Amino acid sequence: xxxxxxxxxxxxxxxxxxxxxxxxxxxxxxxxxxxxxxxxxxxxxxxxxxxxxxxxxxxxxxxxxxxxxxxxxxxxxxxxxxxxxxxxxxxxxxxxxxxxxxxxxxxxxxxxxxxxxxxxxxxxxxxxxxxxxxxxxxxxxxxxxxxxxxxxxxxxxxxxxxxxxxxxxxxxxxxxxxxxxxxxxxxxxxxxxxxxxxxxxxxxxxxxxxxxxxxxxxxxxxxxxxxxxxxxxxxxxxxxxxxxxxxxxxxxxxxxxxxxxxxxxxxxxxxxxxxxxxxxxxxxxxxxxxxxxxxxxxxxxxxxxxxxxxxxxxxxxxxxxxxxxxxxxxxxxxxxxxxxxxxxxxxxxxxxxxxxxxxxxxxxxxxxxxxxxxxxxxxxxxxxxxxxxxxxxxxxxxxxxxxxxxxxxxxxxxxxxxxxxxxxxxxxxxxxxxxxxxxxxxxx
Length: 444
Ligand SMILES: [Zn+2]
Fold this sequence. Notes:
single chain; 444 residues; Urease, subunit C, domain 1; TIM Barrel; nine-stranded mixed β-sheet; 17 helices
């Protein structure tokens, strides 16, 4: 099959005007200027851009259908309301909700997602929809009677079930697993250390929400604020480390190159140094941070220290949508406003969503750029809207102009998952009805 467009943007090399991508089976066979003689199966998108599918660095697919049901702020109020909302949902709710999220990602041109899941359903959602990804199984443990060994046994059982699910759908190559100790206010110190050891033994990467809110920093530094008051009320013994959250994770021996810190909105200069030294990556989710009043992450400072950054939508119940183009635009502009610097550049942001993002998750040998031998995981974006006229820099156009609705095609591993408004092989109408029925039956 040959895919053609006015522009081909390989990311790893210069844009090609009037280019084409030759796909053979699951792979890209060639990326080249258009050859008129070539016959066979040709998809010509005309006034469009062909580029790699996007990497979403952090998401919670299972919460997609809770969008709009929690508008509380600040962060502490929001997360408490989320816990209460989750308790009202039956276990059958999570898979359709995650499938809806996967559909939204596919329609916006995402080919790889790093997802943190409590229920575990993201594994099946990714396996079924054909997306590439890494699923971090979330772990919580802050209640007064510690049972770290029991929690680790339960984690082992969940991971084993995930591996079986992936085998059943022949998705073991596409979807990797990891562990997510949720945060320092939901995972006690002994469990955090035990999970670090467990992950090292099992060669599983870690994802931790860290330094997201001022409430979290107040708890860690001074044992004060909303979290501390809640712990006192619930008689939960919490020995605050007297350091900010990321410094605590460093002191506990948790930070390493296999760790993703989610948000790091409130990371202090000393913590940024520790992060750079340990080689951790950061998942930056600026719309979620803005919505939940947690601030703007110091991305420019992180970039200068060489900390690898991915861009993530976070969940639809915090960010509002899983539209990574919206995230990109908001990220780029908010960062300029906050840092008074034109960095990252438009091109650096687009690389973060493609090749550099793929590198962070160790999948850059297959994903993130259009090159012969790589997975045919790519998108076509229509550039017919008037806003695209007179945008000679494609990276600026992608950052400032592109919307999900411009995505004409999403192909993952040579399979067309989305084309002209249709998710292929998924009954989204039925999915909507199932979710609407479940939501209307939620107990008060
Ligand atoms: Zn999150």
